[in-house]
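Mods, move this if it's the wrong board.
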Amino acid sequence: MEEKQNSDCNYSVPYPDMMSKHLCLLFSFLISLSFTNGIQLIMVNNCKESVWPGILGTVGHSAPRDGGFHLNFGDEVVLDVPDKWSGRIWGRQGCQFDSKGKGTCNTGDCGGLLHCKNAAGAPPATVVEMTLGTSKSPLHYYDVSLVDGFNLPVSMAPLGGGVGCGVAACELDLNVCCPSALEVKRGGKVVGCKSACLAMQSAKYCCTGDFANPNTCKPTIFAHLFKAICPKAYSYAYDDSSSLNKCRAPRYIITFCPPKRA
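Not the wrong board. Structure tokens:
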């Protein structure tokens, strides 16, 4: 298989002026201080299309908003999550649902349901993963993972938390540079980019069986490509730990199609 050569691989997703959005976020942040001391996730859609966030809690952790909702371009939603919450969040695109919340999505579909509840999103999908702490053990751990492939840019950034709090992100549109062997198309358009594991379905690429340790499972050429484009995201199962962030902030902004940071 050959890696696709594309002069657009330095492509940056076009973003609108963020000033008004930041003011709105600040206003929401100040208002929320009056109502809760818990952990908050502020979800923002900066894509030029609707996104349907999917949410899946790990065993024993229920998903806020029944695991899914519609988020228009420019909108934001504040989610309150309990201490110790652990789970994953991803964005779905190209969805159509009926009045009963049944339908389909081009990417990230969770069993044809608006409210994913206990259903995971179909790969490829860019995933935000987190394990939240408590008042006694306040560190929160979070990352952006491309282990299940990519469908849209996303970031998770703390509001406050002090020095050392990092931003987990894949900020560029990896679909533009996706090797042809990994492409997922809808209507002739690339809407997702598979991971090597998803495309090849073998232990060598999925880090399973005899390859279930970092000594035998090494990054593929595709994992190197993912890492070069999105250095602040996990590119494969045994990627280096620098992609894992930790912070004590009480609030985090999860942005779909975030602006590229310097």
